[in-house]
Amino acid sequence: MDRPPLLMVSPLPPARNGIADYAAALLPGLAAHYDCAAAGEDWLAEAPPGIPMVDMALAHRLPREGWRRLCQIGNNPGHGFVLQALRARPGVTTLHDPGLLHLHESTGEDRPTILAGMRHAAPGLAATYARHLREQGFSTRANHLLFDLAGEVLARSQAVIVHSRFARNRLRLTHGEAATAHVEVIPHLLLPATLPSRAAARARLGIGAEEFLVVTAGFASAAKRLDWVLAALEGLPSLRWIHAGEVPPGLAGRLGARARITGHLPADEFDAHVAAADALVNLRFPSTGESSGSLARAFAAGTCCIVSRTGAFAELSADAVLHLPLAGGAGALAEALAGFAAAPERARAIGAAGRAYAETEMALPAVAARYRAVIEAAADRPAAAAGPLPPLRLAADPRLIADALAGRSGRCRLRLDLGDPDRLAELSLAPGGLAGALLPSGAELRAARLEEGALLLDLQLPG
Amino acid sequence: MSAAPLLAALLARAMPGLAARDLGLPLGALLPWLPGTRAGTADAAALDPAERALFGRFRQHGRGLLGLDPIADAEPDPAWEAARDRLAWTSLAAPVPGATVTLVAGGTGEAPLPEGFGRIILVAGRDDAPERHDMLLPEARLGDTLDRLCAAAAALAGPGWQPGGRSLSRRQASLSLLVPRPGHVPDLLLPAAALPHDLAVAGGSEGLPLDGARQVRLLIGSLPPTRWRLSLRFTGAEPGPAALFLDGLRIPARPVPGGLVAGIDPPTRHAPVLGLAWRDGAPPGLRLVTLEARP
Question: How far is A37 from chain B (nearest CA, A)?
Answer without folding.
Answer: 10
